[in-house]
Structure formats: C-alpha cells, structure tokens
Design a protein that fits this description.
By secondary structure, the chain is of the alpha+beta class. It has helices at 27-31, 113-122, 144-153, 212-219, 228-236, 266-279, 297-309, and strands at residues 8-11, 17-20, 42-46, 50-55, 62-69, 75-79, 85-87, 94-96, 100-103, 108-109, 127-131, 155-161, 165-167, 171-175, 178-183, 188-196, 202-209, 225-227, 249-251, 286-293, 314-316. A hairpin with a 5-residue loop joins strand 1 (8-11) and strand 2. The structure holds zinc ion (ZN). Residues 113-114, 224, 270, 273-274 line the site of zinc ion (ZN).
Amino acid sequence: MKLQFNHQRLWDASGEKRYIFSSLFSLEIRRSIVYNELAMEEKKTLQKEVSFSGVGVHSGKNVNLALIPSDSGEIIFRRADLDNLEMGIDPRQIEAKNSTSLVSKDSRIQTIEHLMATLFAFGIDSLIVELDSGEIPIMDGSALPFVAAILQAGTKPLTLNKKTIQILKPFVLQEKEASISFFPDSDFKITYLIDFAHPVIGKQELSLSVNLRTFASEIAPARTFGFLKDVELMRSQGLALGGSLENALVLDDEKVINGPLRFPDEFVRHKILDLIGDLSLLGSPLLGHFKAEKAGHSLHLRAVQFLLDSPEFWAYEK
Ligand SMILES: [Zn+2]
C-alpha cells in the first residue's frame, strides 16, 4: 500500500492557525484514536503490512521500507539488501550525531528516530522493519506520513504483556548549555526549550503530555530543519546528501526559504519528535516528565543510557 497525502492549512474558529489533517483522516479514523493507547498493557503490532519509498536524508539513496506485522514482541530491523541481516534495538549500540542510527559491526541503519517516535506513540512494539538500504526514508521531514499509514492499516493487540517504566526520582544531565532532566509524574510529559539566534526561531518552549492524540496532531507534522550555511560543511562530511527543500525546512540568515511553517513553533515541536524517538529506545512506555533544554540526539541518548545504568532512578510500574 502506498499512500499519497496532502495537507491543508485552515483557520479554526478561534482564529488560530492550525494544521488540519487532510481528508485521509476521516472522522471515523480519528475516532479510532484512543487517548490512552500509550498506557495499554499488551504489546501491539500492525494489522497489515505498510510500505513507503523515499530518500535517505543523509545517504541520499533511494530506499523502500516495509513495516511487517510480527508477534515476536520486539521491533526487528531487517536489511533486505544484506541477505536479510536482522538487527534488534540495543540502546548500547546507537550512534547519535545528526540523526540516530543503529550500528553493529556488519550494518548500520541511520535516521530511525521519526519512525521510532511514531511506533512508540501508537504503542507498537512488535514489528519487522524491512528496508533495502541503510537509512529510513526521510519522507517530508516529519512523522506525518508514518502516522497516516499506520492509522490506515490499524494496530492489533497481542497477548504479550508490556511493562511501563516509571521515573522514581529526579535527575539532571548537563552538557555545557544543554541539559536533560527528568522527574516523577503520573503521565508521560515532555517540556522542550530551544534558543537559536535566528529571527524566525529565537526562543521556543513547549510542554505537553504525550499520547497518540497529541503526537498525531501537535508533534508528528513538525518537520526537520537545517541552516543553509551548514549545508556545505555537512555535505563535505557525507551528511545531508538527500536533504532538499521537499524534506526539510531550510533557513537562510533571515527567513525560512521554503515556508510556510505548519506551526509558528514547528522547530521546538520537531525537537520533541526527536526526543520521543530517542526515548523510545528504552523499549517501554514511560511515566515521567522529561525536560530538555538546547539538547540534541547525543544528549538524548546519554539520558537513555544513564537510565539503563541507573536502575535506582526508575522501576517498572506495578
Ligand atoms: Zn528529526
């Protein structure tokens, strides 16, 4: 199944500019979004296979991606181009620079974070992710194409219990100006603050409870972004080879050159998308408030690894 989707901007009754789902998100499908899916106690897979094709934002290579239902209780990546080599998710074998990548001695899979965030929001933890290249396609730079396809395919509970990680006491990880802290909470919340010396971005802060409804409407549509002045350097390092005006918001010194924005604060929303994708590497639903300031993938990953190394800060919810 290949999906085309369009989006449109409308003004709602309050006059606030809102990003509105296309007709693909019929009322019936939107009704099927259960608010507390993240809190479900059973593992889930997809009802049927979905596929995508696109380009890897860093590799520049075309890639076909299939999400294949499975009852294994795990998310397994499979490289169809490497004799079906399989890779599970091991938070100790992750590289986090400009994107988040699974690495092993035989293979790597780059830019998993937007897909992982989407699977996490749907509570999907049993799946084969098959691809014929080393990078998840960037699609339009957001998670919306993944959300749209999974909403259409539907999810299916398995008779496998899942455990929720509950943060028990606060902690702060600091790296120069950047930090991530986490606190006990009865919900899964994220607060993110960014501060760029750029007239369109500046200081942006957003705080929200993460569930499938807020993820699909407030976070998934937010696209990745980059600065024109960084493009040459990134390309000389073999990065952003597939980046284009179709799959990233690009800023020159004054403006977004390929607007309009989907939200005035689309940038901080995208950072939340990235953080959800990186926290999903813990492999469990979360109860806690995660606050990030001026962070990025490498600090997100340090927080994940800190939690794995520090069982006194969390427990599986009873
Ligand atoms: Zn991202």
